[in-house]
Amino acid sequence: MTIVRAKVMGFCSGVRRAVQLAEQTVERTTGHPAYSLGKIVHNQTVADRLETKGLRLLADDGTPPPGAVVVIRSHGVPPETLRRLRDSGASIVDATCPKVVANQRLAASHAAAGRRVFIAGDEGHGEVMSLSGHAPGVVVVPDRESALACGHDGPSTLIAQTTMNQAEVDGIAAALAENNKDLIVAGGICGATADRQAALRELLPQVDAVVIVGGRDSANTRRLTAIAHEAGKPVWQVANADEISRGDVAGELSRFERIGLSAGASTPDEDIDAVEHRLMELAGKM
Ligand code: F3S
Q1: CATH assignment of 99-189, given 3.40.1010.20, 3.40.47.10, 3.40.50.970, 3.30.465.10?
Q2: C-alpha span between 79 and 83 (Å, rounded)
Q3: Phi/psi at 44 (nearest 5 deg)?
Q4: Which range, of 9-13, 48-52, 53-57, 244-248, averages the lowest pLDDT?
């Protein structure tokens, strides 16, 4: 068995920055509890490490105790959430990814200009909720079928969740354009998402099967898995190396000669390396 790594995979700059800010925050806030509003990143290894260092988890609608420091994750939050946290007396460390901030600003400015803002994204996803809070009257469009049902007489703008698949966004834009004559496509997926998807597409013809490393709650990881699946490649998404050994995954993988390896933008190097190591053990190369 040969393992072929995608040229680009794992942590993006926005996630790396959020994790570093969270680590710095727990290290410097002695005497004050440090919280993250929701998981800093959709990855259990990182969440467990930060929890061990002292970072506590605050529910999205939770109120921190007086004097707390709250880290905002890379997805960002709606403005009213930020206000509520500040009103509670919390200090804020804002780790919202700059690309998400740019889309929040676009959503706010296009809504303020009187345009209906459509967001191509997963309903209930943290980033979609954060964008929605910046544009009153926003309509979330999860797929092409929903887009076909969205008609608006006035001007409208489409902004995409940064971790979507570009083909999904293009399909939604084309469907929306059928019933929205004055439609602008403003904010799209981010470069990090596009790079990981492109690297996987480049890898697919070189391998017989694919392993994608990342949490099942990670939207960008799930999309990498979907891309491999749509290309007709046998694909397994695993959260960690132990899942390789679990059930019949190892047995299934051992049937293939060349295994491709990729990982979502929220997957740390240690998880990727551990999965590669387990695959090499499986191949008898360790
Ligand atoms: Fe930011 Fe894109 Fe990563 S929006 S958090 S760089 S996936």
Answers
A1: 3.40.1010.20
A2: 6
A3: -70, -35
A4: 244-248
Stronger pLDDT, 246 or 18, i.e. the higher one: 18
Query: 55 has which bridge partners?
Result: 34
Give the tens place of pLDDT for each residue, 86-134: 999 999 999 999 999 999 999 999 999 999 999 999 999 999 999 999 9
Pocket of ligand 1 (CB under 6 A): 12-15, 74, 97, 99-100, 162-163, 190, 192-193, 220, 265
Residues 190 and 269: their CA atoms lie apart, in Å, by 21
Q: Which residue is closest in CA terms to ligand 1's atom 5?
A: 14
**3-class SS of residue 4:** strand
Ligand 1 atom 2, closest CA: 190
pLDDT tens digit sequence for 230-275: 999 999 999 999 999 877 888 889 899 999 999 999 999 999 999 9
Q: How far apart are the first and last CA of the chain?
A: 12
CATH of domain 2-11+194-282: 3.40.1010.20
